[in-house]
């Protein structure tokens, strides 16, 4: 159990170096690398895109009900994703998993478990590139290849799509719309990929949550990266928000759209 001021905002300058080596597993990296701050556009661009394309780009759910959605990017892997699934099962909470095609291919049983346990699968490209930095025909391939692999393994074809790093431009947006997918952003970033401790991740989420929030977390990392902080933070975050009257939904439930084509 963690004890901290609900209003606390984590200071990145206080991050603890390293993690417990017993929690590190050598995972295959994304072809285009793990989460990196320099690849992410300013958050204001997220708001601008959502304003320009209100029916295609979703930043959050309705703000008049105490409902939120937990989302988890970059999986599935065979280390951290199962731990997160175990925790969600214990808490009786369903999440939305934005999956990378390479890892879907490598961990089919974990993907099948997600669907079997009532979680929703979204598309997070095949190899996690910044879509604004690759040719538009490759953007289509990144999305369709992942959707086809998810369908092959789990017999569902995702409608939800999250661009790596949140990076978009008009050309990419038009291609995604052409594919009839919905772009799912977030309005609460846990920063769990940045090396925060469990209490810092929990504090960062709780300090920013509001009704309708879509919360960004991760269920897999790059080579040697630990997501122990996400696993540790989840019970406290869920229990605290439950006590405050919040309900946890999947993204399609939160914004009233279909989960799959």
Automatic annotation (TrEMBL):
Alphabetized Pfam families for the sequence: Polysacc_deac_1
Q: Which residues form the NodB homology domain?
A: 66-249
The biased composition feature labelled Basic and acidic residues covers 32-42
Region Disordered: what ranges?
Answer: 20-42
Task: Write the protein's name.
Answer: Polysaccharide deacetylase family protein
